[in-house]
Amino acid sequence: MIEIDGLAFRYPGAHESALEHIGLTVPEGSVTVVAGESGSGKTTLLRLIAGFQVPSAGTIRIAGVPMSEAGRVVVPEERHVGVVFQDFALFPHLTVERNVEFGITRLSREARRRRVAECIDLLGITGLAARYPHELSGGQAQRVAIARALAPSPRIIVMDEPFNNLNVALRHELVPVVARVLRATGITSIVVTHDPHEAYELADEMILLKDGRIEQIGAPRELYESPQTRYVAHFFGPVNEIAVDSGLGRALAHERLPMIDNTTMIVRPERVSVTEIGAGITEAVVRDVRFAGDHLIAELSGDWDGLLRAHITHAELAPGARVGVAVDRLVPTH
After folding, report:
1. What is the 3-class SS of 218-273, one letter each residue?
2. Domain co-membership, 52 together with 101
3. Of 20, 148, 153, 231, whose CB has the highest number of CB atoms within 10 Å?
């Protein structure tokens, strides 16, 4: 378990803190994703947990033992924390097998051989053991980096934007593999990402940062369906903001939609659909229809300010058409 209390950090010469008033608990054996936009403090938090930086204030405890306090840290190598860097950081002169073996040289030769074989097999790279880093694809190199971090059987593994240097296809391939591996090992894991889709697949719990402070903590679905702030709502993609006192807001008054303040409710476009006139909660005019890959987006206007976005499947729906509007009921998760 990782316990963080009152954590703050300011870079030398900076006018503002990179992190401020961070308090959280990471349960043992869980996969926690730290997300947020660039500059939100994600990597700084990870580096403080790993022991690469000294906090300005607050404490970090691992398994009940203080690891970081203002002006004092336990060095990274004594924390039993495995680290996977954004750029993989493989040793170019060592084979895959030797890279994975690097952190366990104190074990006997036979114990090293067994552990390396276990980690390589777990990551599905058995056939690559004799290759060098320059002979690997980006996805293969990332698997080797993870295997190397797992080899010493750390208490904690931290991963800094582990998929950032991979193309979209490789990300889709590797994210579920990493999620499976982390859960199979039972190691407490913290993964930094700016991509909400990676968070969906990886996280038991998600910590969303904004300007060095925690904006919301919870399961990814909770943050997606029941955001507490406008920032959280928009981090996960487009949302419709609906004024409570608008015609549409009054029509939706009994639908128990999430609220981000006392005057605004939100609904995501995939929960809005078009119907025949009279079959929905209100009527609208189609202003535009746009292609968005696996769906179309219709922009609708009515007795409310702005445009209401809806996911539709009616390719023949044309601008100017009058339609009914339906909204799926959603019971908030908190």
Report:
1. ECHHHHHHCCCCHHHHHHCCCCEEEECCCHHHHHCCCCCCCEEECCEEEECHHHEE
2. yes
3. 148
Closest CA to 96 of 137, 153, 145, 138: 145
Inform me whether the pLDDT recorded for 53 exceeds 50: yes
Beta carbons of 104 and 151 less than 8 angstroms apart: yes
pLDDT score of 256 more than 80 = no
pLDDT value, residue 157: 94
Mean of the per-residue pLDDT values for the chain?
A: 90
Phi, psi of 49 (to 5 degrees): -65, -40
Which amino acid is residue 39, in one-letter code? G
- As a whole number of angstroms, the distance between CA 166 and CA 316 comes to 37
Find the domain containing 109 and state its range: 2-225
Q: Of 62, 99, 73, which is closest to residue 9 (Cα–Cα)?
A: 73
pLDDT in tens, 194-217: 888 888 889 999 999 999 999 999
pLDDT above 70 (res 295): yes
Model pLDDT, residue 334: 44
- What is the C-alpha separation between 125 and 148, in angstroms, rounded? 12
Six-digit token pair at 298? Answer: 């219709």
Examine the fold and report which residue of 198, 225, 252 is the final residue of a domain before the chain moves on: 225
Is the pLDDT at 314 greater than 80, yes or no?
A: no
- Residue 231, domain member (yes or no): no
**Is the four-CA dihedral 301, 305, 306, 307 of positive or negative sign?**
negative
Q: With contact defined as beta carbons under 8 Å apart, do 284 and 302 qualify?
A: yes
Transcribe 271-298 into DSSP letters.
Answer: GEEEESTTSSSEEEEEEEEEE-SSSEEE
Ramachandran angles phi, psi of 11, nearest 5°:
-70, 145
Place of tokens 């970081």: 68
- What was the pLDDT predicted at 329? 63
Long-range CB contacts for residues 113-121, cutoff 8 Å, separation at least 24? 115/151, 115/153, 116/151, 119/147, 119/148, 119/150, 119/151, 120/96, 120/147
